[in-house]
Amino acid sequence: MKRMNNAVVALACVGACGVGNMAWAKKYDAGASDTEVKIGNTMPYSGSASSFSAAGRVIGAYFEKVNEAGGVNGRKLVWLSYDDQYSPPMTVEQTRKLVEKDQVLAIMGSLGTATNSAVYRYLNQKKVPQLFLLTGAPKFSDPKAYPYTTPFTPSFESEGRVFANKIKSSNPNAKVAVLYQNDDMGKAYLEGLKSGLGTAQIVAAASYESSDPTVDSQIVKLKSSGADVFVSFSMPRAAAQAIKKVKDINWNLAEQYVASSSAYVKTVMEPAGPDAAKGVKSTIYFKDASDPRWANDPATQEFKAFMKKYLPGEDASTSQTVLGYTMAQVMVHVVTAAGDELTRDNILKQATSIKSLSLPMLLPGISMQTTAANYQLFDAFQLIQFDGKQFGPVGTPVRP
């Protein structure tokens, strides 16, 4: 009888332990359940930067596609994306709504340096992951000070160093003039260029405010420096104005560069004038769906089919659509890897331990990888040059 009692106790323990393990098999924070995962975002669907908002619409459409196929680990992805008008106070208001009212599990893909600057301390205090931001400002890749914030866009400083390395190799005695937006973005780009070139080769630098109607006077001033290389760390409107003004005042340059944030055919090169823009160099890390080189590429064809089905009114040739598509895919990768432990800390862990992830619309030779000590997704760039119609590659991917 004694042995039987012991056996019963042992079986009871196994049963209880089994129930306990089942109870603890799934872990959820706010925004996650057996049926859904809430992911939040702010985007400038209106205002001065509304041309960048396509990424937010594409992310939502891609999540819809995933949900139609059964979701992620049986859970639907709920996409809550609010208009912040590219205004930091509005970003604060909408972000608080996402965290305190909607109770999202994480925020991802929000656009802008100033806008994300307005909320990243708050989100870190709340320990809400703020993932894959569309800004390359260095402060958004600081695991020690702000562990819950990670970038998508490569570091502005790194891109500046890539430009510097290219200038040194092609024109070692160049005299360089720089136009930069007077904010964290422009200053970070400039620091990267300086760290690669040194200050001696940069013979002139001029800043502009995002609210300035034109940058014509800055371009005239920079030409007077005698520089033969011009680097524009500008947003699209100012970048197009600068390229056009360079042509108008007959500034004969050996080379001209624009930041990747302005390496767009339709919004920069065409408004500037294809002849004026011919020869302009930049960097990229994803495929251009409008480039004839990728016409028969299976990944590009799949992307175009996705856009036609889910967002037929959206221009699939813009880079923002490819960005949104790729960001959605990396977020699905993170949620999938998190499994049934859908806590904010585990989502952060998965986002910062990505290993050699090659997504379909990334250029050959470029992949994603993160560690707990290095949040930068990309460690390589592809230099590109505008030929009057399209951007084409210059050499193979390079590292800063």
How is the quaternary structure best described? Answer: single chain
Structural class: alpha/beta
Give the fraction of residues assigned to helices.
40-55%
CATH level-four homologous superfamily name of the largest domain: Response regulator
The CATH class assignment of the largest domain is Alpha Beta
The total count of helices amounts to: 14
Radius of gyration: 24 Å
CATH topology of the largest domain: Rossmann fold
Bulk shape: globular
Describe the 3D structure:
42% of the residues lie in helices and 16% in strands. With 400 residues, it is of the alpha/beta class. The chain has two domains: 36-154 and 295-369, Rossmann fold, CATH 3.40.50; 156-284 and 383-393, Response regulator (Rossmann fold, 3-Layer(aba) Sandwich). Helix 7 (184-197) links the parallel strand 7 (176-181) and strand 8 (202-208). The longest helix has 23 residues, at 2-24. It is globular, with a radius of gyration of 24 Å.
Brief sketch in words of this structure:
The chain has 14 helices and 14 strands. It is of the alpha/beta class and about 400 residues long.
SSE topology:
Layout: H1 2-24, E1 27-28, E2 36-43, H2 54-68, E3 76-83, H3 88-101, E4 106-108, H4 113-117, H5 120-126, E5 130-133, E6 149-151, H6 156-170, E7 176-181, H7 184-197, E8 202-208, H8 216-223, E9 229-233, H9 236-248, E10 255-258, H10 265-272, H11 274-277, E11 281-284, H12 298-310, H13 319-338, E12 341-342, H14 344-351, E13 382-386, E14 391-393
Parallel strand pairs: 1-12, 2-3, 2-4, 4-5, 5-6, 7-8, 7-9, 9-10
Antiparallel strand pairs: 11-13, 13-14
Helix pairs in contact: 2-13, 6-7, 8-9, 9-10, 13-14
